[in-house]
């Protein structure tokens, strides 16, 4: 092992790989300027996997310079067709390396390989295909007739240098939601992975180079949020920043823009998304969707349907069946190994998140005296990993901290409602507005809910099955702006208005 690469083995899948550990600037892996490193831990075992280079402020400046030079001299002059070709090359490489990338996600984040990690890669491939095909199709601007001798036209132009900060719950998927859209639009990028899940994006950087992207177009800067993230937010030569993570840090990114150069800001932040189940719903199907909507990815999902409201006439039946489903379908598997097909609930990301979630569980149980069900024993005895079983709190009052705050774990609160107005009021009673779901066979009621709920996404008779072709983003304190779909490119473009005077006299 050098300090810039190490050999990793994943025996469960018979995979060996050369893992980059350096900062990726100008298409080369390099050490950090101050030699600092970060150790990354396998949440399944609690043991260290390896250490990678942690960028300094000086490295941020170096990456920004690389991205600026690449934008001004090369990328802004690269045709949209050629950008699409690079993205198509990238797609082919991701397809070839999908198992390795998915395996890295499982190793570093603990997400079950066969369900979650492969699912993340399927989404990454779909969105790369989508954005590769979009480069010559997105909105290019309009012509506006003014007078006989005057007209104007608009140009949609890239911002230039874009910074992107991504979280650990979907390390590569969240990176690709941002990266491919920004590249399709013609920007150069500096992207910062989360401290605890940097390996997959560093490996992905090798594919960027192989795909032919010119040096400096994509730069990957692993490092601490409080240092690298902050330096990106306040940098005077970054034109736009896009962030996914907690609402608290999202606010500080917005503030950093205001205190520096007013760079454009897109934020995807927290959520406490409601799912409503009306008495006319297909109960079994609703329960399957809702269980997946909270227990998939161990509940570490900004759109998780973490608040469930059920009409009182079917409440008891719902609760009974929901518990059965959680116990039967959402288990760790006997080996506590997310590479094992039986494992559908992996560990949560870190000991810090484990402690945070456990605090919520203890609060609900001991201080708020709530009725609680867990799909298996907790704390789990047979593992050193950060495993938390699906946990269901029932009859939870609207004022409970568990109902109001984002827990970001496999923990759900269930409450009852009497009628539509009651349900809507409860569902909208939150500072968040990311997503929502409604289960009913009544088309009118479903669309009334879609009209009335203050959230960026509404699922009718499903939950959390987002699609890369559909815009995604939050109302209220869940964020600013949209990603994916056409918005995934538009968000990285700004409008220039050109006024043309044809008159000979003035
Ligand atoms: N919306 C989402 O998808 C996510 C929400 N969260 C929420 O946040 C809670 C805490 O998780 P954390 O890992 O602490 O989230 P976080 O918001 O601190 O981390 C997300 C990203 O922001 C970076 N960051 C941290 N401080 C920064 C700063 N001052 N300036 C710029 N970037 C910074 C981190 O390095 C990471 O890359 C979770 O329990 C969950 O509620 C966390 C991750 C993803
Ligand atoms: N469902 C992917 C978006 C997120 O959790 O951040």
Automatic annotation (TrEMBL):
Alphabetical list of InterPro entries matching this protein: Ald_DH/histidinol_DH, Ald_DH_C, Ald_DH_CS_CYS, Ald_DH_CS_GLU, Ald_DH_N, Aldehyde_DH_dom
The protein, known as: Ald2p
Keyword field: NAD, Oxidoreductase
Active site per database record: 268
SUPFAM superfamilies per UniProt: ALDH-like (SSF53720)
GO biological-process terms attached to the record: carboxylic acid biosynthetic process; polyamine catabolic process
Aldehyde dehydrogenase domain segment(s): 32-498
Family of this protein: Belongs to the aldehyde dehydrogenase family.
Species: Saccharomyces arboricola (strain H-6 / AS 2.3317 / CBS 10644) (Yeast)
Source organism phylogeny: Eukaryota, Fungi, Dikarya, Ascomycota, Saccharomycotina
MF GO annotations: aldehyde dehydrogenase (NAD+) activity
């Amino acid at each position: 092992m050098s300090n810039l690469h190490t050999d990793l083995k994943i025996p469960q899948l018979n995979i060996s790989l050369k893992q980059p550990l350096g900062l990726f600037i100008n298409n080369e892996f390099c050490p950090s300027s101050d030699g600092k490193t970060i150790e990354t831990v396998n949440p399944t075992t609690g043991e260290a996997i390896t250490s990678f280079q942690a960028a300094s402020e000086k490295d941020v400046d170096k990456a920004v310079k690389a991205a600026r030079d690449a934008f001004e001299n090369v990328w802004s002059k690269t045709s949209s067709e050629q950008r699409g070709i690079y993205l198509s090359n990238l797609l082919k490489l991701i397809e070839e390396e999908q198992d390795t990338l998915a395996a890295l996600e499982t190793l570093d984040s603990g997400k079950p390989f066969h369900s979650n990690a492969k699912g993340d890669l399927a989404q990454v491939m779909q969105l790369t295909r989508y954005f590769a095909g979009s480069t010559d199709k997105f909105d290019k601007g309009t012509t506006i007739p003014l007078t006989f001798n005057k007209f104007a036209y608009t140009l949609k132009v890239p911002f230039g240098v874009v910074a992107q900060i991504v979280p650990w719950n979907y390390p590569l998927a969240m990176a690709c939601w941002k990266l491919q859209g920004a590249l399709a639009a013609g920007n150069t990028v500096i992207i910062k992975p989360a401290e605890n899940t940097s390996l997959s994006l560093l490996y992905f950087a090798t594919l960027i180079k192989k795909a032919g992207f010119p040096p400096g177009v994509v730069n990957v800067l692993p490092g601490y949020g409080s240092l690298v993230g902050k330096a990106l937010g306040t940098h005077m030569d970054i034109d736009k920043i896009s962030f996914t993570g907690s609402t608290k840090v999202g606010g500080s990114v917005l503030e950093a823009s205001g205190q520096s150069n007013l760079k454009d800001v897109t934020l995807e932040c927290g959520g406490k998304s409601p799912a409503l189940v009306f008495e006319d719903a297909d109960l079994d199907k609703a329960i399957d969707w809702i269980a997946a909507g909270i227990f998939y990815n161990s509940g570490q999902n900004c759109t998780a349907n973490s608040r469930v409201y059920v009409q009182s006439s079917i409440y008891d039946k719902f609760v009974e069946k929901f518990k059965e489903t959680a116990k039967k379908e959402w288990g760790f598997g006997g080996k506590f190994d997310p590479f094992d097909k039986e494992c559908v609930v992996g560990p949560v990301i870190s000991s810090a998140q484990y402690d945070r979630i456990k605090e919520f569980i203890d609060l609900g149980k001991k201080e708020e005296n709530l009725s609680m069900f867990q799909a298996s024993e907790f704390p789990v005895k047979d593992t050193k990993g950060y495993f938390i079983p699906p946990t269901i709190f029932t009859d939870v009052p609207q004022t409970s901290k568990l109902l109001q705050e984002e827990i970001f774990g496999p923990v759900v609160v269930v409450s009852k409602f009497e009628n539509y107005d009651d349900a809507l009021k409860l569902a909208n009673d939150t500072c968040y507005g990311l997503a929502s779901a409604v289960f009913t066979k009544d088309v009118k009621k479903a669309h009334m809910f879609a009209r009335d709920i203050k959230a960026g996404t509404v699922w009718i008779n499903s939950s959390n099955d987002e699609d890369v072709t559909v815009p995604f983003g939050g109302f209220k304190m869940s964020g600013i702006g949209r990603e994916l779909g056409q918005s995934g490119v538009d968000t990285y473009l700004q409008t220039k208005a050109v006024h043309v005077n044809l008159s000979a006299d003035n």
